[in-house]
Every structure is written in C-alpha cells, then in structure tokens.
Design brief:
single chain; 495 residues; alpha+beta; 12 helices
Length: 495
C-alpha cells in the first residue's frame, strides 16, 4: 500500500517536506484553491459540488465530504441512522480515538491550529483539524498536507507546520480486512504525521514513516488492519538487512524501506518503553537559532541520558531480535509477536565447515549467514569474524536445532567454538554497529575443531595385553594426534 506525498504551501517551501518538485509551482499558483472545498482545480471536488461537514464528538476534528460526483461517500446510514453516512461517522470516531490515544494518553502534541494562518472560513476557520474525503490518487489511500509553517520570527521554534489530510471516500475492494480497518489505518497514520509536524518537518522519512506506522499499533493494538499493515511493510526491511539505516533517507528506491523501519521503532518501544518515541520527537524540535537535530543524534542522546544505552548498542540488539523471528522465535526473547514476523534474509546457505566467507558491511546494517553441514556425529566448529572497522567485530551466533529450537545468543569474541549436532544449523549475525562507517569487507571463518585427547585419560591406558580406548570422532588433525599417542603408549610398554 502506498501513502501519498506531502504537499507544501507558501511558507512551508523550506520546511524539508517531500513533495514532488513539479507540485510546487502548481501549489503556488493555486494557493487560493488548495483546499478540496474550494474551486474546481486539481485539488477540488469538481464542478462546484458543495461539501458537507461533520463535526464528530470531542471537538477536535471537522470532516468534509460530498454525496454526489466521483468523490461521493457511501450514503449508507444505519449504525446509527442519524443523517450522517456511516463511513463519515467512522472517520470521525477513528480520528477522535487517535487523538485520545496519541495526545491525551501518551502526551504527544496536538496538530497545530490552522486558524492562526488563514482568515478565510473555508480554510479551516477554527482550531479543529480538517479531514477531506476524496480520492487521493492512483496507488494512494491518503496523504497529509503541510500547509503553513512557523518561520521563527516570534522567537519560537521554526519549521513547525499546520495542515490537513485527505483520505479516500471508501475502501471497498481494498486489501484491508474491512472498510473500518482501512479508516483506522489511515487516521492513526496520517494524523500522526500532522502531530510530527507540530515538532518539525525536517526529519528523514525512515523516521517519520516508520514512527507513523508504529503509531497505528499504539492507537489500535487489537485491530487486525493495523497489524496487517505493519507486517506488510516489514519485508522491505527484512529482505534488505544490508541497507545502511544511517544513510537511507527513505526516498527513491528506499521508499518502501522507510515504512519497514517501523520495526526499529517498535523495537525501541518494546525494549525501552513507548514513552521514548515521544521523547525522541520532542528532541527533534528545531531550536530558534540552530539547525534541525537529526533523529539519529536524538536517539543516541536519549538512550544515553535515560537508559544507559546508545544508538550503537540498540542497533546491535535490534539486528539480533530480527534473527529471532518466524520459525526461530522463542518466548520471552525479542519481539512480543516475533513468530508472526517475516524471516530475515540470509546469505546463500553454506554446507562445508572449513571455509571463509566475505560479506560487505556498510554503516548501521547487518548480514546473516547460515552454515548447515551434513554431520553424522556432534562436531565442534570455531567461528572467527574480522571487521576492518573495529578491533572487535560485532557478531553473534545461535544454533538452530534439527528439532526447531533456538539456542541462546553467543557473542563471537576473537573466535568462538560451538558444537553442532546432526541436522543443526549455525546462524551468525554480523552487525554494522559503527554509524557512518564506510563499506568494508568482513571475513567470517569457520573451522572444524579437532577433539582434545588427554594422554593420561583412563580410557587411553593399557588394559591387559592390548590397548583400549573409547571411540572418539576425529578429523584429520585429530587422527594424527591419536597416532602419536599410540606411539607414546608403545614406547611405554617397551620400557
């Protein structure tokens, strides 16, 4: 599913929004026709069709809709039969639910009052946030408009913006479980963008879109629509773990990835508490005489100040949570609903133990390796990781057993030995934990470890006229050791 682009008007050209360049001139020329209730231009309802208004309980929103033309809503009015189409009433209800959850209960700022910027009654007219029901365009379910922004001339933070949002007048035939679920997804997502705008509009889409998807789950945690929406975006991140999070702004080819980064916001929320996300947005507000803080810097500062952690540590743990999903999910480890998550993409599976694998690591990212040798007996395997960007590589391993169980994570410290049984897989996650680090080649070496044989072991002492020993599986080097021990024993007999 695609969300719409951000549209900017007048004062907001320098606010860091992401409207397509060709929209700027049109918006500037049609400044007096920007609202869907005004005129017959590119953003109007067409043919002068007047919009009707619904003010849902709560006093925070105003919903504009039409009952004729291509943007008409379904006129069904049965639940309750009160003269307001059910679809329109559901939009108002979902918007108020979003406000109560996000602003009242969790303490985020409300959207800015648009009446401060307009003197025309059809440009909002009052402090209520405006929602317009009309088709958002091909491939889009809705979009928010950043319409007018503070410039800092009042001594307060610049770049805070007011606006409205547009959503489709129905979701029949969509991928949502129901029209109500579509409404819940769009309101909790797009209204959160307008709440973000109350702090500032200069953040990367990887944070603005990721946290907007996260907010859907916060407002409607039991909604199958918001959960489906969240899961639907995750493959964009899970299939590209090598993409550097600290270098992908979320535009162009990374557009889908920007929504998938909701997994990182969810990780922060589950691991450190949902209050952290609000604190990050508060830290992203532009000071009156300074630049817009980058969300990555804010995350690092907030984690250090409040949780004795850091962006580097959190990113490392996040990449390991992503290993423990789908069939590898384990209760009380990682995400609360990890078994429903997609599986992260692994490099091509390896079957030979003794080998060296080289992968490229860039910035904050991760690579996942899988070794599944064909074994007949338990075999110790030594893993060594070498990262040119760090004296100690950031890597960990788990054993995924033949029975479908996942072992505890083991840090790989200058070479770590783990024992694989027949049917087991050795899974290694290499984390690019150094923000801004250039692309470099990281080497992962795996090697079978020969068993250590104690010559003083009772099982290797002479017994009667012969030499008895337990049968121990050995590799080539181990066999040579046994032969040497046999020679020592023979010499002892001759003495």
């Amino acid at each position: 599913m695609k969300r719409g682009a951000v549209l900017l008007l007048g004062l907001c050209f320098a606010c860091g929004g992401e409207a397509e360049p060709e929209l700027f001139d049109r918006v500037s020329v049609l400044q007096q026709q920007i609202r869907p209730t005004d005129g017959v231009g590119w953003n109007g309802n067409g043919f002068g069709i007047p919009a009707q208004v619904y003010d849902p309980p709560g006093g925070h929103f105003r919903v504009y809709y039409v009952t004729t033309g291509e943007n008409a809503v379904d006129l069904t009015d049965i639940a309750p039969k009160d003269g307001v189409p059910d679809f329109v009433a559901q939009v108002g209800s979902a918007a108020e639910d979003t406000y109560q959850s996000t602003v009242v209960q969790r303490g985020f700022r409300p959207p800015l009052d648009d009446s401060v910027y307009h003197d025309r009654p059809d440009f909002g007219g009052d402090g209520r946030f405006d929602i317009y029901l009309r088709w958002a365009g091909k491939g889009s379910d809705g979009y928010r408009v950043t319409e007018a922004c503070t410039d800092g001339s009042d001594g307060k933070s610049p770049g805070r913006c007011a606006g409205y949002f547009v959503m489709n007048p129905n979701y029949k035939g969509s991928s949502y479980p129901s029209e109500l679920e579509g409404i819940r997804v769009l309101t909790s997502h797009e209204l959160f963008h307008s709440i973000q705008d109350a702090y500032g509009t200069g953040q990367w889409r990887t944070f603005s879109e990721g946290s907007a998807v996260w907010n859907e789950l916060q407002v409607f945690p039991d909604s199958p629509g918001t959960w489906k929406d969240y899961l639907g975006f995750l493959p964009a991140l899970f299939r590209e773990p090598e993409r550097p999070f600290d270098k992908s702004m979320g535009s162009g080819p990374a557009a889908s990835y920007a929504y998938g980064t909701a997994a990182f916001i969810e990780y922060l929320s589950e691991r450190f508490g949902p209050l952290l996300i609000r604190q990050i947005w508060e830290g992203c507000e532009q000071p009156p005489a300074s630049e817009v803080p980058l969300f990555l810097d804010v995350i690092d500062a907030e984690l250090k100040k409040r949780h004795r952690s850091s962006l580097q540590s959190a990113w490392t743990e996040f990449t390991r949570w992503n290993l423990l999903t789908a069939e590898r999910a384990t209760p009380d480890r990682g995400y609360r609903r990890a078994s429903e998550y997609p599986s992260v993409r692994f490099e091509p599976e390896r079957t030979e133990i003794d080998q060296t694998t080289t992968v490229e690591v860039n910035g904050l990212s991760a690579r996942y390796l899988k070794l599944r040798p064909s074994l007949s007996v338990p075999t110790p395997v030594r893993i060594t990781v070498s990262d040119p960007a760090s004296e100690t590589a950031t890597a960990a391993a788990v054993i995924f057993t033949a029975s479908g169980r996942t072992s505890d994570l083991t840090e790989i410290q200058q070479g770590t030995t783990l024992t694989l049984s027949p049917g087991d897989s050795l899974l290694v996650v290499i984390t690019g934990a150094v923000r801004g680090a250039r692309a470099r080649m990281v080497q992962v070496n795996s090697q079978a470890v020969p068993p250590v044989v104690d010559p003083e072991s009772p099982d290797l002492q002479p017994k009667g006229c012969g030499f008895a020993a337990q049968q121990v599986p050995v590799g080539p080097l181990g066999a040579l050791g046994v032969l040497l021990l046999l020679g020592v024993a023979a010499q002892r007999r001759r003495r």
